[in-house]
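Sequence in, structure out. Go.
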Amino acid sequence: MKTLEQCQVLEIADLERIVVSQLLKGISLAEISINMGLSERSVKKLVENANRKMKTAEIRNLTKDLNEYN
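Output:
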């Protein structure tokens, strides 16, 4: 199994997008882990990072919308 640090071909953000898109297609974490050659822990970490970034972006957009409204 590779760790995230060993995946130098793709950027972490690219890996996050790939994992999230596969989850949305209904592919399990275990299958994604096997397909990408990553540990399940690494795949979960990618999902957590993507989730955190999406929440941050949503908050940023809401703040921007509120500022424009005022």
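Check: The first helix runs from residue 12 to 24. The mean pLDDT is 83.
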